[in-house]
Each structure stands twice: as structure tokens, then as C-alpha cells.
Amino acid sequence: MREALAALRPSDARYATPPRQGRPKGLNILGTLAHHPALARAYHVFNGHLLFSTTLTERQRELAILRVAALRRAEYEWRQHAVLAADVGITEAELAAVAEGPGATVWPPLEAALLRAVDELVAGAALSQETWETLATSLSIEQSMDLVFTVGAYDLLAMVFGAFSIELDDDLAAVAPSPFAPCP
Questions:
Q1: What is the DSSP string of 80-120?
Q2: Is 158 exposed, middle or buried (0-12, 13-18, 19+ CB in 10 A)?
Q3: Is this prediction's pTM over 0.85?
Q4: Residues 63-94: pLDDT tens digits?
Q5: Of 7, 93, 96, 157, which one has the fewest beta carbons inside 10 Å?
Q6: Is residue 78 within 8 Å of 68, Cβ to Cβ?
Q7: Could you give the domains of the chain?
């Protein structure tokens, strides 16, 4: 598992590793992944890119991940990323607006399009022409690809949390609960 965890930090990282002291550790998800170290390593290589080497801004990445968590009612994913969202300046009001979706009045056009893209990808695995055109005015092809892969990876992770009934870690219980009722 040390090797699997080390794979989470790519050599070409654009973004710093968040501080660890006094923060949720995600031990329950790591404990689940420990049952299959080879799979954990492979996923961490991929997820390491999405977290630390993405061409998206950290804010864009966290908005996308939180929207996936809201759509999938993935409480664990929401709480873990609410912590990271605060690190990149996403406010509590914006967290609530993420759960409301792209129609919330707080979003500038690009962020509304980013959230709409998440909705479309989760619902139908495709982007509408309107959403694609709005994103293309501000995002490079690499950023668009990172967005689609981020949504896919965190949709998969939401599935893992649900399929294996992974409970919240005790240290996540104190983190801002989601504004939605988690799936049973």
C-alpha cells in the first residue's frame, strides 16, 4: 500500500500536496483499497494526475468533483472534497450552490458551464453542443479532457463508496455535511 499511495503523487505535479495535520485522512476508503493493492496503485496513478497535475485550476477541479458528489449523493466524497474546496477559496455559500447546480445565480458563465458539463456527463456520458461551445471559449482541449476524466473518475469513486458501503471516518463526521440526503 505504500507503493500504491506513493503513486498518488506524480513527478510532474502542478499543485502542492494539501497539509495533512488535523485533516481527515480517508482511512476507510484506503482500507477498502488495501484489499487490492495493484488496483489501488493503478487508480492512484490516474487520480494523482487529476488531483496534482491537472490542467484545470484547483477551483475548477473541486467544483467538478463536488458536483459529482452532489449528483451521486456521495457523502464521503462530498465531505473529503469540502475540505479541499475550502483550501482553494470555495465558500460555504458556493458549496450550497454546487448542490443546487449550474442554475444557481452565483456562477459566472464558465463555472455554470463546467457544472452543467458535470450534470450532462453523469446523466448521459456526453456534452451538449451548447455546453461544449461555452467550455471551448475558455478551456483548452487538455483542460476539457481533464474535466471529462475528472468527472468519470469521481463518478467511479462515488460508485465505489456506495457499492462497498464505505462508512464515514470519524474525522470526517465533523466536516461540513452535504446539503443533500445521502443515498441509503
A1: HHHHHHHHTT--HHHHHHHHH-TTSTT--HHHHHHHHHHHH
A2: buried
A3: yes
A4: 999 999 999 999 999 999 999 999 999 999 99
A5: 93
A6: no
A7: 56-172 (1.20.1290.10)
